[in-house]
Batch of 3 targets.
Target 1
Amino acid sequence: MTAALTYVDDAEVSVAAAVQRAQRRLVDEVFGAAAGVTIGQAAASVGVTV
């Protein structure tokens, strides 16, 4: 399965933090639940901080 998310930010009305939280939740719900891990756990396992 492949998915893509695109987000363009506007500095004056930035919602980047909310978008990042939503993106993590979406990925966790769609991909992490099946594998039993969250995106944070998967990233940490390869030394990446999210």
Target 2
Amino acid sequence: MMVRLLGDRPAALVREISKIHQQVIRGTLSELLESCGSNPFRGEDGAGGIGFRL
């Protein structure tokens, strides 16, 4: 749905591993969706801090 709504634009997924370390995955929205399907994140699932402008 995000690709349809926003277009296949560059984006990043960021998760905090600890208070010091983060994991950042960059790509287009379709690449990130494909990446998450084959290698899903484990742990807590939350949307804190996620925001975008239309």
Target 3
Amino acid sequence: MPCAQSGRLSLLAVTSKERSAMLPDIPTMAEAGFPEIAITQWFAAFAPAGTPGEIARAPRGGLRQGPVRSDGARAPCGCCAGDRGRHTGRILASTYRGRRRVVAAGAGFGLGRN
């Protein structure tokens, strides 16, 4: 984070529930006085039905190490490998929570109905 390291940018908080390994001196939103704000980013990858298990599981090793950044270093991230049902449930729950917030704010959700 060159801008923060140079002092041109002040980092106030990270939005995850835990402090970032990449920014250990930056507090979480809860530590900064906003406990209701906790936002994490996550990704899921699904293989087509019938994909052999050893092929479907192959990317997990690299993901546990973290994605490769443009400078060649590994970016810290967590890997939550699991089964299809677990991830499908997480996607549906996240979509439902997001939809509730958008509708409560009076905005449309973009799925043709609110």
